[in-house]
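[agent] plan:
  1. take the single chain provided in the ticket
  2. run structure prediction with default settings
  3. attach C-alpha coordinates to the ticket
  4. add a short note for the reviewer (M.T.)
[agent] executing step 1
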Amino acid sequence: MNKYLSDRADIINYLIEKRNFKSYLEIGLDNGDNYKRIQCEHKESVDPYFSDDHNKYDLTFSGELPYEIQSLLTYRLTSDDFFDNNENTYDIIFIDGLHTEEQVGKDIINGLKCLNDNGLIVVHDCIPRNYEAQVIPRIQGEWNGTVWKAIVELTRLGLDIKVWEGDYGCAIISKTNDENLLHYPEKSNVEWAEFVNYRDKMINVIDTPTLLTLY
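[agent] step 2 finished; step 3 output follows
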Protein backbone atom coordinates (compact mmCIF):
# COMPACT_ATOMS: atom_id res chain seq x y z
CA MET A 1 0.00 0.00 0.00
CA ASN A 2 1.32 3.42 -0.98
CA LYS A 3 1.85 5.38 2.22
CA TYR A 4 2.85 8.66 0.57
CA LEU A 5 -0.08 10.90 1.34
CA SER A 6 -0.02 14.37 -0.21
CA ASP A 7 -3.64 15.51 -0.41
CA ARG A 8 -7.31 14.73 0.20
CA ALA A 9 -7.60 12.15 -2.61
CA ASP A 10 -4.60 10.24 -1.24
CA ILE A 11 -6.17 10.18 2.22
CA ILE A 12 -9.54 8.99 0.90
CA ASN A 13 -8.00 6.28 -1.30
CA TYR A 14 -5.81 5.12 1.58
CA LEU A 15 -8.85 4.76 3.85
CA ILE A 16 -10.85 2.98 1.12
CA GLU A 17 -8.08 0.45 0.57
CA LYS A 18 -7.24 -0.01 4.24
CA ARG A 19 -10.85 -0.65 5.31
CA ASN A 20 -12.04 -2.31 2.11
CA PHE A 21 -14.72 0.32 1.59
CA LYS A 22 -17.08 -0.25 -1.34
CA SER A 23 -19.23 2.91 -1.47
CA TYR A 24 -18.20 6.57 -1.67
CA LEU A 25 -20.20 9.81 -1.61
CA GLU A 26 -18.75 13.22 -2.43
CA ILE A 27 -20.52 16.40 -1.32
CA GLY A 28 -19.24 19.26 -3.51
CA LEU A 29 -18.04 17.93 -6.86
CA ASP A 30 -16.79 21.29 -8.21
CA ASN A 31 -14.63 20.57 -11.28
CA GLY A 32 -14.47 16.85 -10.60
CA ASP A 33 -10.69 16.62 -10.19
CA ASN A 34 -10.85 14.96 -6.77
CA TYR A 35 -13.76 12.69 -7.69
CA LYS A 36 -11.97 11.32 -10.76
CA ARG A 37 -9.04 10.20 -8.61
CA ILE A 38 -11.10 8.26 -6.08
CA GLN A 39 -10.77 4.50 -6.50
CA CYS A 40 -13.91 2.90 -5.13
CA GLU A 41 -16.32 0.26 -6.41
CA HIS A 42 -19.38 2.53 -6.19
CA LYS A 43 -19.17 6.34 -6.32
CA GLU A 44 -21.81 9.07 -6.13
CA SER A 45 -21.55 12.86 -6.16
CA VAL A 46 -23.73 15.80 -5.13
CA ASP A 47 -23.47 19.43 -6.25
CA PRO A 48 -26.17 22.02 -7.07
CA TYR A 49 -23.93 24.18 -9.32
CA PHE A 50 -25.64 27.39 -8.35
CA SER A 51 -24.61 30.48 -10.24
CA ASP A 52 -22.65 32.85 -8.02
CA ASP A 53 -19.34 34.73 -7.90
CA HIS A 54 -17.45 31.57 -6.91
CA ASN A 55 -18.81 29.20 -9.56
CA LYS A 56 -16.44 29.03 -12.51
CA TYR A 57 -19.22 27.65 -14.75
CA ASP A 58 -21.44 30.70 -14.16
CA LEU A 59 -24.65 28.68 -14.41
CA THR A 60 -28.18 29.01 -13.13
CA PHE A 61 -29.62 26.15 -11.10
CA SER A 62 -31.24 24.73 -14.24
CA GLY A 63 -28.42 25.70 -16.59
CA GLU A 64 -26.51 23.35 -18.87
CA LEU A 65 -23.41 21.74 -17.41
CA PRO A 66 -20.27 20.88 -19.38
CA TYR A 67 -20.41 17.27 -20.61
CA GLU A 68 -17.51 16.15 -18.43
CA ILE A 69 -19.27 17.43 -15.32
CA GLN A 70 -22.53 15.78 -16.36
CA SER A 71 -20.71 12.47 -16.67
CA LEU A 72 -19.37 12.74 -13.12
CA LEU A 73 -22.39 14.24 -11.34
CA THR A 74 -24.90 11.85 -9.79
CA TYR A 75 -27.25 14.30 -8.05
CA ARG A 76 -27.66 17.93 -9.05
CA LEU A 77 -29.07 19.01 -5.70
CA THR A 78 -28.10 20.99 -2.64
CA SER A 79 -26.72 18.73 0.07
CA ASP A 80 -29.77 19.54 2.24
CA ASP A 81 -32.16 18.37 -0.48
CA PHE A 82 -30.05 15.30 -1.14
CA PHE A 83 -29.97 14.19 2.49
CA ASP A 84 -33.67 14.93 2.96
CA ASN A 85 -34.48 12.36 0.27
CA ASN A 86 -31.57 9.95 0.49
CA GLU A 87 -32.18 6.31 1.43
CA ASN A 88 -28.70 4.99 0.62
CA THR A 89 -25.83 4.35 3.00
CA TYR A 90 -22.11 4.77 2.36
CA ASP A 91 -18.80 3.52 3.69
CA ILE A 92 -17.01 6.84 3.27
CA ILE A 93 -18.28 10.37 2.64
CA PHE A 94 -16.16 13.33 1.56
CA ILE A 95 -17.50 16.79 2.41
CA ASP A 96 -16.17 19.73 0.41
CA GLY A 97 -19.31 21.75 -0.31
CA LEU A 98 -20.26 25.19 0.96
CA HIS A 99 -17.48 26.26 3.35
CA THR A 100 -19.56 27.80 6.12
CA GLU A 101 -19.79 26.59 9.70
CA GLU A 102 -23.55 26.13 9.54
CA GLN A 103 -23.61 24.15 6.28
CA VAL A 104 -20.61 21.98 7.09
CA GLY A 105 -22.09 21.19 10.49
CA LYS A 106 -25.35 20.06 8.87
CA ASP A 107 -23.52 18.06 6.19
CA ILE A 108 -21.46 16.21 8.80
CA ILE A 109 -24.44 15.31 11.00
CA ASN A 110 -26.53 14.27 7.99
CA GLY A 111 -23.59 12.28 6.67
CA LEU A 112 -23.15 10.40 9.95
CA LYS A 113 -26.79 9.32 9.79
CA CYS A 114 -26.27 7.54 6.46
CA LEU A 115 -22.81 6.15 7.17
CA ASN A 116 -22.32 2.39 7.38
CA ASP A 117 -20.88 0.81 10.52
CA ASN A 118 -17.11 1.33 10.66
CA GLY A 119 -17.55 4.11 8.10
CA LEU A 120 -15.72 7.44 7.99
CA ILE A 121 -16.34 11.02 6.94
CA VAL A 122 -13.52 13.14 5.53
CA VAL A 123 -13.91 16.93 5.59
CA HIS A 124 -11.65 19.32 3.66
CA ASP A 125 -10.53 22.89 4.51
CA CYS A 126 -10.28 22.52 8.28
CA ILE A 127 -7.03 24.51 8.67
CA PRO A 128 -7.05 27.85 6.80
CA ARG A 129 -3.59 29.26 6.10
CA ASN A 130 -4.45 32.75 7.30
CA TYR A 131 -7.22 35.01 8.54
CA GLU A 132 -8.21 36.16 5.06
CA ALA A 133 -8.76 32.58 3.88
CA GLN A 134 -11.57 32.08 6.39
CA VAL A 135 -13.38 35.41 6.12
CA ILE A 136 -17.05 35.34 5.10
CA PRO A 137 -18.01 36.70 2.63
CA ARG A 138 -15.06 35.52 0.56
CA ILE A 139 -12.45 38.21 -0.08
CA GLN A 140 -9.77 36.26 -1.99
CA GLY A 141 -9.30 33.37 -4.40
CA GLU A 142 -7.90 30.87 -1.90
CA TRP A 143 -10.77 30.27 0.49
CA ASN A 144 -11.36 27.70 3.22
CA GLY A 145 -14.23 29.46 4.96
CA THR A 146 -15.32 28.65 8.50
CA VAL A 147 -15.20 24.87 8.24
CA TRP A 148 -12.77 25.01 11.18
CA LYS A 149 -15.49 26.34 13.47
CA ALA A 150 -17.73 23.36 12.78
CA ILE A 151 -14.86 20.99 13.52
CA VAL A 152 -14.08 22.79 16.79
CA GLU A 153 -17.68 22.52 18.00
CA LEU A 154 -18.21 18.92 16.91
CA THR A 155 -14.96 17.92 18.61
CA ARG A 156 -16.20 19.62 21.78
CA LEU A 157 -19.48 17.77 21.43
CA GLY A 158 -17.61 14.48 21.63
CA LEU A 159 -17.34 13.13 18.10
CA ASP A 160 -14.23 11.08 17.31
CA ILE A 161 -12.38 13.56 15.09
CA LYS A 162 -8.75 13.77 14.01
CA VAL A 163 -7.49 16.39 11.55
CA TRP A 164 -4.61 15.51 9.23
CA GLU A 165 -2.38 18.55 8.94
CA GLY A 166 -1.89 18.42 5.14
CA ASP A 167 -3.90 19.94 2.26
CA TYR A 168 -5.54 22.72 4.32
CA GLY A 169 -6.53 20.21 6.99
CA CYS A 170 -8.57 17.06 6.38
CA ALA A 171 -10.78 15.94 9.26
CA ILE A 172 -11.47 12.22 9.67
CA ILE A 173 -14.67 11.58 11.59
CA SER A 174 -15.65 8.11 12.81
CA LYS A 175 -19.14 6.65 12.67
CA THR A 176 -21.27 6.99 15.79
CA ASN A 177 -24.72 5.69 16.71
CA ASP A 178 -24.94 7.87 19.81
CA GLU A 179 -28.05 10.01 19.31
CA ASN A 180 -26.65 12.60 21.73
CA LEU A 181 -23.89 13.31 19.21
CA LEU A 182 -26.05 13.45 16.11
CA HIS A 183 -26.96 17.10 16.29
CA TYR A 184 -25.06 20.30 15.61
CA PRO A 185 -24.33 22.39 18.73
CA GLU A 186 -24.77 26.12 19.00
CA LYS A 187 -22.81 28.38 16.67
CA SER A 188 -19.16 28.63 17.69
CA ASN A 189 -17.98 31.67 19.63
CA VAL A 190 -14.29 30.78 19.18
CA GLU A 191 -12.32 33.63 17.63
CA TRP A 192 -9.64 33.20 14.97
CA ALA A 193 -6.78 34.22 17.29
CA GLU A 194 -7.77 31.60 19.85
CA PHE A 195 -7.95 28.94 17.16
CA VAL A 196 -4.50 29.85 15.86
CA ASN A 197 -2.99 29.58 19.34
CA TYR A 198 -4.71 26.34 20.40
CA ARG A 199 -5.56 24.73 17.08
CA ASP A 200 -3.73 21.43 17.52
CA LYS A 201 -5.51 20.66 20.77
CA MET A 202 -8.90 22.06 19.74
CA ILE A 203 -9.26 19.82 16.69
CA ASN A 204 -6.76 17.01 17.38
CA VAL A 205 -4.28 17.76 14.59
CA ILE A 206 -2.20 14.75 13.52
CA ASP A 207 0.69 14.15 11.11
CA THR A 208 0.96 11.40 8.49
CA PRO A 209 2.72 8.76 10.67
CA THR A 210 0.02 9.18 13.33
CA LEU A 211 -2.73 8.89 10.73
CA LEU A 212 -1.23 5.66 9.40
CA THR A 213 -1.10 4.28 12.95
CA LEU A 214 -4.65 5.27 13.90
CA TYR A 215 -6.34 4.32 10.65
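[agent] step 4 note for reviewer: The longest strand covers residues 115-123.
[agent] ticket updated
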